[in-house]
Amino acid sequence: QVQLVESGGGLVQAGGSLSLSCAASGRTFSTDGMAWFRQAPGKEREFVAAASWSGGSTYYADSVKGRFTISRDNAKNTVYLQMNSLKPEDTAVYYCASDPTGRGWVPFNEYDYWGQGTQVTVSS
After folding, report:
1. Is the pLDDT at 5 greater than 80, yes or no?
2. Mean pLDDT, range 11-21, rounded to an integer
3. 66-104 core/surface letters (b: 16 or more CB in 10 A; e: else)
């Protein structure tokens, strides 16, 4: 049974930092691309960041470029999202997703597994 479990969300003041983790189990994710998405209340789920299977290629939404960093540890089947200089508009539920092609950044419907999400709230 494949599972993605996010952790690390919470409440932080604007300008602060949080680090999210997504632990994968049930299959070997070292050949999968991995991505982070987020969904704010009343809005569609949006892409945040992605990493290829090796971590050698990374992709970011313009809204987080320069503030967020995606990384992965394939030995631990875990992908991370370091979020710095947080803004109130970063408030959302953050989800990780796996991409079996290994590319990392693929069309939305090509991500095959999703975590349950972790809440990030940034106060002004």
Report:
1. yes
2. 98
3. eebbbebebeebbbbbebeebeeebbbbbbbbbbbebbb
